[in-house]
């Protein structure tokens, strides 16, 4: 077109970013790449092609990592770990700072390489991915510097195996490597097989930064390579970002291996628009929610919920906005959507949309380039919650929509999902916004904004969107472990029944220990009881043998007691104090019972009762002091990192301190607003069943604490597999952690299955470690300004 | 306020530059009864609007020939302006001469572009006659700032009269200033009535409503004032007098053009937009054009629906156009001053 013609048409025209430097880098360093192991690049092995998805043209050959490669990388990381962990905080901070600087110096090379490999618009790589990655290293240079001062009593975990997705290749690398290094760990990271190039360039940056050999290792390859890292006995921690299906598989594969695990998985995040919202801004927000990165974003606002009265107008205006989106060459600086990452992804999206027979499907009337993995921005209206596309993650530029009538219904529909990663809500009413945000089942909530990220703000999900947080102090702590002394948990067998010939002592009036469910004493569903003997063969009583149905009932009661989470922290504290008061009043009786049950010395029994009362006081004290924080994010606004109860927690209590151990688990849980189904010590259950009478008289609402006695492994297994249980804790002896953790993969509940335990009488048997497990961080972003 | 009366106002100009005269292309805005419910519903979320405004320059860009063509287009949308206490007839004639040939002919020829003019010349009332005379036969309209510009606090009847005087003097466009106090006190009826009367006083002349957005406090006020002025018959809405502390900004522009879009959706009537003050770089002009293209459409890339209120912008565009032709960076003194 001539200038004169353009003067009339006022078209945009091409605005290509040059790929020359990036292609030159590939040609120079490749075009066949090995791994980055022990500070150097290995020779390419068996390779596969990585392609530019916008053109299908091969960019480079990437090595398929073998078991040997993974072994070598983990060996290098293991060797590097002690020295790296022993460095001063300042020394590590300097390396992280250098990495941040180098990312900045090579910013455009990273951006163009990312766009070539992934297909995302170069604007996004340039203005979002790469700056956020830099910011992550800068922020974590600071966290590295302050680690010892702010987190005393913690040490790095060891070699971290990290597996990242293809949608934000360098950014996810930064989210993984920066906190691991800041905490003092070493790393073996596998980039996604579609998008390995920026990770390899990062390897080069590590060399330029003079990072000690073996601290960062990059092994490329497909899922098999990832599996080798995940299941390798040499990795102490696994951090994964990717699909829920793979996350679940990792949970199963690592079950019982004692690895620390964080998973950031899929989502179907709601995008709620109330009728008083700034509609134009809400529509513009959708562009960033679902058409950012072609919709290949785990936290994409992919489920549009519009208040019914404005839905027609909203959809009309949204369609008009969609018509303005430009899909094209990702290297063009004037496009909104580039290419999907791979033909496989394109086919999957097509298949899902084509299979849908409900509602009205609107493809934006935009020109698509010929060839390449392009799909138009798409809106499907008129769906209901029952439609598969309202429930299943599409991971593409497809927005599905339904309507709601009231704020309550908006929350119900929003939470009607297996996922819980992010949520967006739009309203100009502050009361409404601050009421709704905490009610949404999501780890991140954006108010009048969407897809805001920062290194200082924790990010992560609930439900099947995974567990663990990335960013800020909360993210750093996922790469640290407490150094306090613990001892291996040993199972304690109940005292055996005396020889049949021994006549039992004459009993007093029979006291029947029952289960405690929903605030009521309940007979075990199975109708079986277990005799509990003292060491001397005295029949101390019977404890019910609970079964699956008792667990079902207990979980139902716990779920029904959700009002406890809404009670004020002051009120929860009062109840905990009251439990302590009532326990104290019966202290002598409990001490006698402990002595009889465990055959310990009277002094030990008295000490346990006293420690139990003190522990209740501690968590009463904590109830209103586990504050969230305001993260210092670089926007005009606040990011509130709020501590929310996890929900319903299943807890398998320890044997060695049958009263104190039990209370040490449920007290922090209920202090934070959780409800608990606790399985008391198998050996000494009567310490627990005595306690429910105390709970009964302490104004604790029914269902907040439930106790089911019986076989701890069987009951634990039912809890682990229960989809309505949010977390499972265990300090019980003799349980099969592998089976429990594997069963927990069903709903990806948070597990805290311990093979070591503190001395329950010691100070480190209470406090933040327990409270962290009892809470989930929800980050609520509230930009402001008038 | 009938359309026939409006379209009659074409006589003084020849046919070569009728692009500038909106009435040739589309019906004028007849206005609407004041709809207070609609006004009350209007929301403007400042931080969201700022985010959109901040990312737009990164999302849209034009390069090479496209950039040159767009810059030339921007020139045709400039209301070349002098609003200084020391304006004289000589100064205004010089400005008008520049408006007739804003870009060196050799540059236009090298670019393969036709002769272009600026969108209008904008002056105070006292300079209208001089400007009309200087622009005779060019088709370039003269715009007069009016109604006690810039504060709008002179006696009301004189403000209305001032419009009539400027129209009589030959101004084809009247840039009125609204009473900011009506916005700040939420007296939408008073704002509507005032705007209605100003519009009536303009007769066939087009009326641009200057909101003085830098003095309205909030973007929500900007959005509501925009809407009320359009309901009262404004042909254009304009950000600023250039005399406020804060003049045209992208967030304010986004707020106002979204109001224009809503008004068009409701009435089918296209209202023009004029950001004024603070736009001095060629790059800024390109961002504004892309903003109009994205949020409103290509119709708003022409002087009948879009103007820049600017004085120094033209100089920067001239230098950029020369750079485009020669490949070497230009200097201010190589281009005739306004």
UniProtKB/TrEMBL annotation, chain A:
Aldehyde dehydrogenase domain residues: 46-481, 537-752
GO molecular function: aldehyde dehydrogenase [NAD(P)+] activity
Keywords noted in UniProt: Oxidoreductase
UniProt keyword Transmembrane, yes or no: no
Coiled-coil regions listed: none
Catalytic-site annotation from UniProt: 264
Family to which this protein belongs: Belongs to the aldehyde dehydrogenase family.
PANTHER family named in the record: ALDEHYDE DEHYDROGENASE-RELATED (PTHR11699)
Protein's recorded name: Aldehyde dehydrogenase (NAD+)
Automatic annotation (TrEMBL), chain B:
Similarity comment: family membership: Belongs to the DeoC/FbaB aldolase family. DeoC type 2 subfamily.
Taxonomic source organism: Roseicyclus mahoneyensis
Positions of the UniProt region annotated as Disordered: 1-29
Pathway noted in the entry: Carbohydrate degradation; 2-deoxy-D-ribose 1-phosphate degradation; D-glyceraldehyde 3-phosphate and acetaldehyde from 2-deoxy-alpha-D-ribose 1-phosphate: step 2/2
GO cellular component terms, semicolon-separated: cytoplasm
GO process annotations (BP): carbohydrate catabolic process; deoxyribonucleotide catabolic process
Catalysed reaction, written as an equation: 2-deoxy-D-ribose 5-phosphate = D-glyceraldehyde 3-phosphate + acetaldehyde
Top-level EC class: lyase
Classification via Pfam families: DeoC
Example GO molecular function: deoxyribose-phosphate aldolase activity
Protein name per its UniProtKB record: Deoxyribose-phosphate aldolase
Cleaved signal peptide residues: none
Keywords, alphabetical: Lyase, Schiff base
EC number, as in UniProt: 4.1.2.4
PANTHER family: DEOXYRIBOSE-PHOSPHATE ALDOLASE
Recorded superkingdom: Bacteria
């Amino acid at each position: 077109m001539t200038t004169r013609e353009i003067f009339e048409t006022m078209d945009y025209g091409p605005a290509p970013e040059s790929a020359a430097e990036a292609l030159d880098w590939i040609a120079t360093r490749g075009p066949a790449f090995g791994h980055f192991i022990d500070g150097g690049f290995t020779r390419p092995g068996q390779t596969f092609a990585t392609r530019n998805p916008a053109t299908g043209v091969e960019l480079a050959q990437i090595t398929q990592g073998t078991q040997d490669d993974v072994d070598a990388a983990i060996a290098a990381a293991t060797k590097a770990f002690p020295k790296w962990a022993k460095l001063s905080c300042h020394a590590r901070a300097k390396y992280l700072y250098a990495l941040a600087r180098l990312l900045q110096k090579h910013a455009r090379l990273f951006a163009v390489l990312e766009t070539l490999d992934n297909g995302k618009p170069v604007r996004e790589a340039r203005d979002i991915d790469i700056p956020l990655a830099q910011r992550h290293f800068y922020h974590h240079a600071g966290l590295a510097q302050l680690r010892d001062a702010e987190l005393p009593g913690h040490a790095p975990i060891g070699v971290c195996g990290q597996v990242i997705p293809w949608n934000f290749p360098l950014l996810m690398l930064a989210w993984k490597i920066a906190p691991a290094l800041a905490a003092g760990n070493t790393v073996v990271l596998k980039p996604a097989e579609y998008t390995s190039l920026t990770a390899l360039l990062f390897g080069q940056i590590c060399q330029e930064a003079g990072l000690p050999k073996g601290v960062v290792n990059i092994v490329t390859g497909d899922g098999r390579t990832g599996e080798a890292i995940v299941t390798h006995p040499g990795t102490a921690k696994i951090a994964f970002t990717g699909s829920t299906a793979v996350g679940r598989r990792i949970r199963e594969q690592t079950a019982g291996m004692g690895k620390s695990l964080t998973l950031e998985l899929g989502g179907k995040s709601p995008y709620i628009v109330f009728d008083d919202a700034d509609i134009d801004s809400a529509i513009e927000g959708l562009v960033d929610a679902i058409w950012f990165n072609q919709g290949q974003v785990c936290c994409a606002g992919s489920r549009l919920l519009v208040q019914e009265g404005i839905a027609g107008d909203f959809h009309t205006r949204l369609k008009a906005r969609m018509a303005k989106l430009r899909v094209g060459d990702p290297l063009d600086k004037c496009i909104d959507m580039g290419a999907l990452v791979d033909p496989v992804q394109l086919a999957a999206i097509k298949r899902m949309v084509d299979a849908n027979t409900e509602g009205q499907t609107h493809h934006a009337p935009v020109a698509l380039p010929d060839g390449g993995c392009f799909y138009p921005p798409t809106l499907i209206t008129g769906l209901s919650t029952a439609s598969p596309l309202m429930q299943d993650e599409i991971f593409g530029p497809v927005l599905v929509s339904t309507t709601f009538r009231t704020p309550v219904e908006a929350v119900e529909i929003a939470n009607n999902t297996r996922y819980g990663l992010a949520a967006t809500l739009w309203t100009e009413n502050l009361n409404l916004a601050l009421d709704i945000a905490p009610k949404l089942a999501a780890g991140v909530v954006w108010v009048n904004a969407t897809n805001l990220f920062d290194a200082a703000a924790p990010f992560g999900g609930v439900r099947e969107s995974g567990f663990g947080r990335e960013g800020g102090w909360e993210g750093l702590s996922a790469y640290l472990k407490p150094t306090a002394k613990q001892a291996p948990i040993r199972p304690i067998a109940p005292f055996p029944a005396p020889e049949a010939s021994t006549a039992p002592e004459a009993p007093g009036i029979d006291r029947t220990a029952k289960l405690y469910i929903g605030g009521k004493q309940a007979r075990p569903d199975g109708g079986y009881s277990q005799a509990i003997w003292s060491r001397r063969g005295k029949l101390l009583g019977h404890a019910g043998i609970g079964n699956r149905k008792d667990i079902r009932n207990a979980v139902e009661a716990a779920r029904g007691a959700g009002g406890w989470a809404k009670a004020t922290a002051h009120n929860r504290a009062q109840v905990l104090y009251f439990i302590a008061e009532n326990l104290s009043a019966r202290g002598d009786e409990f001490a006698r019972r402990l002595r009889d049950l465990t055959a310990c010395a009277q002094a030990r029994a008295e000490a346990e009762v006293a420690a139990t009362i003190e522990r209740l006081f501690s968590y009463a004290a904590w109830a209103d002091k586990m504050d969230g924080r305001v993260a210092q994010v670089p926007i005009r606004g606040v990011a509130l990192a709020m501590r929310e109860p996890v929900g319903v927690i299943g807890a398998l209590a320890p044997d060695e301190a049958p009263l104190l151990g039990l209370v040490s688990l449920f007290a922090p849980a209920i202090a934070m607003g959780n409800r608990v189904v606790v399985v008391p010590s198998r050996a000494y259950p009567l310490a627990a069943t005595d306690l429910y009478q105390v709970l009964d008289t302490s104004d604790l609402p029914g269902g907040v604490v439930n106790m089911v006695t019986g076989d701890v492994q069987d009951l634990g297994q039912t809890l682990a597999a229960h989809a309505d249980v949010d977390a499972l804790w265990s300090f019980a002896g003799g349980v099969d952690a592998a089976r429990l953790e594997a069963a927990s993969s069903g709903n990806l509940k948070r597990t805290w299955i311990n093979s070591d335990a503190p001395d329950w009488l010691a100070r480190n048997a209470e406090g933040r470690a327990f409270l962290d497990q009892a809470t989930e961080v929800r980050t609520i972003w509230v930009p402001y300004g008038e | 306020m009938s359309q026939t009366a409006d379209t009659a106002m074409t006589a003084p100009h020849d046919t070569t530059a009728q692009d500038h005269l909106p009435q040739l292309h589309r019906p004028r805005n007849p206005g609407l009864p004041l709809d207070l419910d609609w006004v009350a519903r209007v929301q403007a979320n400042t931080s969201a609007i700022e985010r959109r405004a901040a990312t737009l320059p990164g999302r849209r860009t034009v390069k090479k020939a496209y950039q040159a063509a767009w810059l030339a287009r921007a020139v045709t949308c400039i209301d070349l302006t002098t609003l200084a206490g020391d304006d004289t007839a000589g100064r205004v004639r010089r400005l008008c001469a520049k408006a007739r040939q804003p870009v060196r002919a050799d540059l236009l020829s090298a670019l393969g572009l036709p002769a272009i003019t600026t969108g209008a010349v904008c002056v105070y009332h006292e300079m209208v006659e001089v400007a009309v005379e200087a622009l005779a036969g060019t088709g370039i309209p003269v715009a007069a700032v009016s109604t006690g510009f810039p504060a709008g606090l002179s006696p009301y009847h004189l403000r209305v009269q001032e419009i009539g005087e400027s129209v009589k003097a030959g101004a084809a466009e009247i840039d009125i200033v609204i009473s900011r106090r009506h916005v700040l006190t939420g007296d939408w009826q008073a704002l509507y009535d005032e705007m209605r009367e100003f519009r009536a006083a303009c007769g066939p002349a087009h009326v641009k409503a200057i909101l003085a957005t830098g003095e309205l406090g909030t973007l929500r006020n900007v959005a509501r004032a925009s809407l009320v002025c359009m309901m009262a018959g404004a042909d254009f809405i304009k950000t600023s007098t250039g005399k406020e502390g804060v003049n045209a900004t992208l967030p304010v522009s986004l707020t106002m053009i979204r109001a224009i879009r809503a008004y068009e959706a409701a009435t089918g009537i296209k209202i023009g937009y004029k950001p004024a003050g603070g736009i001095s770089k060629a790059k800024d002009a390109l961002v504004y054009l892309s903003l109009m293209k994205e949020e409103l459409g290509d119709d708003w890339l022409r002087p009948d629906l879009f103007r820049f209120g600017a004085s120094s912008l033209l100089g920067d565009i001239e230098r950029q156009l020369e750079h485009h032709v020669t490949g070497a960076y230009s200097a201010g003194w190589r281009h005739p001053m306004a």
